[in-house]
Amino acid sequence: MSTSTRGPIPNGGGLMRRLNLGTAIAGGMILGFIGWYVSGKVFGFGDGPDNAWGRDRVWIITMTLWAIGFMAGIGAFVGPIRWVMGKDQKFEDQMYLAGKNQGISRYFKFTTDHKVVGIQYLIVTMLLFFVGGILAMLIRTDLISKNTEIFGPQTYNAVVGLHGIVMIVATIIMVTGPFGNFVVPIMIGARDMAFPRLNALSFWLIASLVPILLSAVFLGGIPTGWSAYEPLGSQAPPGMDSYLMTIIIFAISSGVAGANIVTTVLKMRARGMTWNRTPIFVYGVVASVGLAIPAFPTFMASQVISGVDRTTGTVFYDTAAGGNDWLYTNLFWLMGHPEVYVILIPALAAMMEYLPVFVRKPLFNFNAAVIGIAGIVGLSVMVWAHHMYTTGWAPNLNAPFMLTTELISVPTGMLFLVFVGTLWRGKVWARLPMLAVYAMLWNFIIGGITGIYLSDVPVDVAFHGSMYVTAHFHYTLMGAGLVGAMGAVMYWFPKVTGRMFDEKIGGWGFWISQIGFNVTFMGMFAVGLAGQPRRVGSYSALFANGNLVSTLGAYTIFLGMLIFLAAIIHSWTAGEIAPSNPWGAKTLEWQVPTPVPLENFEVLPVITSDPYGYGVPEKTHEPQLESVHAGDH
Amino acid sequence: MSNSVETQQQSSKFAEWIKRPYLRHVLLIWIGLTILLEFFGPVQARLMGAPASESMKAIEDTMTLFTYAAAPVAALVIAVVLYSIVGWRQPKGAGPSDESPAIRTNGPVTTVWVIVSSLLCVFLLIWGLGEMNSLAPKATSAKPLVIDVIGNQWAWNFKYPDNGNIESNQLVMPVDQPVIFHVSSVDVVHSFWLVQLGVKVDANPFRVTLAHVTPTTLGRFDVRCAELCGLYHAHMQTDALVLSPSDFNQWIANGGHA
Amino acid sequence: MKRTFTALVTVLLGATVVFGVASFLHVSNQQNPPVMATVNGTAQTSQGLLPHAFISLSTYPDSLAGEHGPSGGVHPDWVSYGPSTAISLPAHALVTMTITQYDSGEVLNNPYFARVWGTVATPGDGTTDGQMLLDGKPVSQVDPNHIGHTFTMHEITSPGQDSLFVSVPLPAVPEEEVPDSGYSKTPHVITFSFITGGAGKYVWNCEYPCGDGTYRKFGDAMAARSFMSGTVTVA
Hints:
The structure holds 3 protein chains of 3 kinds. By secondary structure, chain B is an alpha+beta fold. Chain B has 6 helices and 10 strands, in the order H-H-H-H-H-E-E-E-E-E-E-E-E-E-E-H. Chain B folds into 2 domains: about 5-90 and about 110-135, no CATH class; about 145-255, Sandwich (Immunoglobulin-like). In chain B, about 45% of the residues lie in helices and about 20% in strands. Chain B starts with a helix and ends in a 5-residue tail after the last helix. Chain C folds into 2 domains: about 1-30; about 35-235, Sandwich (Immunoglobulin-like), CATH 2.60.40. Chains A and B meet through helix 6, helix 12, helix 13, helix 14 and helix 15 of A and helix 4, helix 5, strand 7 and strand 9 of B.
């Protein structure tokens, strides 16, 4: 990534020239402090009977003002205010905002270039995984033996809750954030997203929520698990305010990002890129954000209501007072189930995108891939109450939800068909991203089948709330989802960073983490079968061996992931310089130079075929291609 | 062309298809893996322990049956993965291949795949519905024993409204008699999990949810809370004792003591 | 070479961060030294002749006298048990516990805990199994509307660890008798006994909800160790 010759920084940008991460933090801290101070005076900080809502009001106001100050400090409001004042952007303003010729500093500003936003997302995602991983190590260490107490149960519960929500935020953005942003516009032949400033906005909203999320550590934690069920949540300390503010801001960010991506793909595909010629990764990203658009608002609503309950004495979730805790549970799972497909689909789509490149044959049954994705998306909004089979909420609805849940196995099976069919007879170029596909398939078949057990209502009676569920969702979200994301990182690494990813060290890291992963979560299936509940810091002697195995496996995952991280760092800073198309792939992002020019294409391309035209037609055994004519014997 | 020539062509197509070496190898691996995985069938049920009620037995049987049914599916995916790694790999150091066949799709394979997966799905559904039906409480001549289960942070207590309102912190039941639990909570949501008897239902604040079971084995079992409920969720556990009818009556007569 | 070095450094840094955070959390969550039961002679019980151990605790309307020191720590106004919420008892012994209750109180969430559970007779004071001595009088239950605290022990069911469930209600000192500073001159004194089994780890918590301002008043002090909950180690 040579920066030897850069042109001059454009004029324009106005106030944006002075705004960056530093001014954002300053803005957030100033406004946040004012909010804390003033609301503290008005409402008081104390806990106790005379001030049930005081501290929650103080913290929510503080966090809201932090977020507003941060966004003001990064310049998110400059555009709208200028528009109100009648001053639209000029071309030089747009070029400035796109980060033209600004070098490293553009990564710390409100930069609209989708490639910059993609890298910003990648860094923040890696940071979140690091934090979540540390929390996981703390959890597993506390579980190494039945009576180990590194810290007591209230800290344990808080660590578990924080681990969950940090990982959920990280896994939701891990593919669409970095690669939905960096790759998709180039892949469809566009110069940028439909709404470049909204793109920067969606990233900086995430940046603003990270301190809010981590503030939970100082406010008593999130001791309710990431699902924060009511009424337990309303009993919990102000860490819950951090949680609900995080979710509200996250929902705004993902809504904005979703609108941007969907509009971009609908309206800005290059000439000739019909839906049949659109790469499957694009479908996956659109499906994911498209699913998030109806789903995340219910999560946001559930948290807004929690916030109102915590600060004004409303009783939406308090059954004794006339409310209903099942309202929370339904709102939560209306989001919660689609959300896992928001996580999974882009990861699988990334692998479906690059698998043909490494086996050098077309994606098998492109239509089945699209129908499979669409089927999963459509059904996923109809299955939410399979998380509620044992709540007693609506026992008569258990059977219909079992039906819709088990139906999802059919479109999911179609995706397996696409993977298996693409592998079939493909001569394998055994690079590390390719090998990651095998790991994903192994993990996903286990995750998928265990999901089928859980979908059966009577079986779920045995497993709900046990470690079996925890093992199942780690196999799907981590074993398939995160592995897909790691594959995406390795595949697009040469285009994003300009260097080749070190597959030797990266390979060690990857496989050590995979072995550790399977050991950890197989051990967890075992203790779940034997009857260990989830979210417990101490357990019966029956579960001792399984937990020891899981803990040792977890340390192995950590070792592997750190080695993988080292490979990323080393390759990014000192790796072999990459050619513009090291994989010989056909999608558009590989047809532009590396580093990718600011506006991606000199001349916008015209598409004449789909990107899967690999392989030798004569070798397909297709009857019409063999010389069989009537009359031959 | 006559029918016999067409059929001859079709069967020769199939004969050709089956002769392809990679197909036979994958088939062999598939069958081998399926057999291996079928041995795994009963393992999960065994890890769940001996069932102490009909409900638990049904759950364990379902796990075993579903594993038997899933084994060939998993085996197929893994067989293709394995053969891809060993049989279709480019030699080390060689770049990408220029010899892979440009297979875009395969109608018959897709059709069979979708049909089989749909049939499996229908099977799962019918089995599940049948299971739910057989586990539903039946109108029997014996009136079920009513036990109130009250969860609070962080202990369970049990009340026997039909037996003089005896209270106990341990769950005591007579063997082979249907029991119906009236489960509720006085604070947050807990989950009443009678582990070896396959009973689980949430204890919701100020609401009563129901569960029922007929214990079939004498012994001591575990009651655990299965919904995170605060500081001592892990310790919200107690014993469940299944006694002979005479021992149970003795327990009742003693006011809920041994 | 350089990349192996990077890998090694990354692993070491990662491990150090985990170790550092874990150590910090461990130290800041340390339980105070436990209050130990002292064995004094033997007693005749339904399980034969057992060592007789004695232990005393108190419940206070604030945190100034318990394990948080005279300043009361972070939450001086939270009610607490003292001298420590970590309790250590001998195995296979008759344990007689005396609790001096200085605090006021109201109604329980669950009236079950207004009764005495799991106790045995204390030799010589007139109580029978299932009773406790309240200010000199044997009782088996108290008014659920005037409870100050409870002492409720429970466990994880685990093979190899004996069940131990004991719960006694500690009646409230009337509101008028609780001074604005200092403690009531007329606290309730509750004495009860139970038999410990083999070695094991248990927990105890108070079941009288006093976390005012939180849902069902079970937040704050109720949900934090070292105030209204703690551990029991039988060794």
